[in-house]
Design brief:
Blueprint (H helix, E strand, L loop, with lengths): L1 H9 L6 H30 L2 H11 L6 H11 L8 H8 L3 E6 L2 E7 L5 H17 L1 H10 L6 H22 L5 H26 L1
Antiparallel strand pairs: 1-2
Helix pairs in contact: 1-2, 3-4, 4-6, 6-7, 6-8, 7-8
Length: 203
């Protein structure tokens, strides 16, 4: 927000050199404090060996940094209170809702009523995943409806990352790309079988 304000001020007709200087100083202070806070987070996690190990499980996912993992764990209190992935995605605001009224049928969208900090923490990891994670890149390409609306598919990747983090945390294991690829392949085979069976029953 401060960067946006500085950018607007720099391109404003009326601007003050003193005000620009103050904005620059404010940004440097914020960046310094963010670094300090992240270091404090790392110390807190390292002081708890069990927590440290479980955070490492989440960091094994390509694209998930320490800060992203720690934020999700902190915002969910270590995934306590969730008995399944559906509850977790609903809490984060990734649950799908259908906008409709009477005979009107609208488009489906995510609710965004949940924890915005989790959604924010997973945005950049999702961007990274679709570039460097072959499994999630394939998933992204499959769910992307049109080239004009990539955000829909990106949100789907964020949701998948959150569910994956929940699974690794719960099972205390590292990310296994081969397991994910095999799981995706099995899903595609089952989907193809269902389509074939449906075609036979309707023919």
């Amino acid at each position: 927000m401060e960067r946006n304000r500085l950018h607007a001020l720099e391109h404003s007709v009326y601007k003050s050199k003193r005000e620009l200087k103050r904005y620059g100083q404010r940004l440097k202070l914020i960046e310094k404090q963010l670094i300090e806070i992240e270091k404090e987070m790392e110390i807190l996690v390292k002081n708890d060996p069990q927590l440290h190990q479980r955070i490492k499980h989440l960091e094994s996912i390509p694209g998930i940094s320490f800060k992203s993992a720690a934020t999700v764990v902190g915002e969910t209190l270590g995934f306590t209170g969730f008995t399944n992935a559906k509850q977790l995605t609903s809490y984060a605001g990734f649950d799908v809702v259908l906008k409709e009224s009477g005979a009107y049928k609208g488009k489906t969208r995510i609710s965004k009523k949940g924890n915005k900090h989790i959604r924010s923490a997973l945005y950049m990891p999702a961007m990274s995943a679709i570039q460097w994670n072959p499994t999630l890149r394939k998933f992204y390409e499959r769910v992307q409806p049109t080239k004009v609306k990539p955000m829909i598919a990106l949100v789907a990747v964020e949701r998948k990352l959150l569910v994956l983090m929940y699974s690794l945390w719960k099972n205390k294991i590292d990310y296994d790309p081969e397991h994910e690829q095999k799981k995706t392949a099995r899903t595609e085979v089952l989907a193809a079988q269902d389509r074939s069976n449906l075609a036979l029953t309707t023919s």
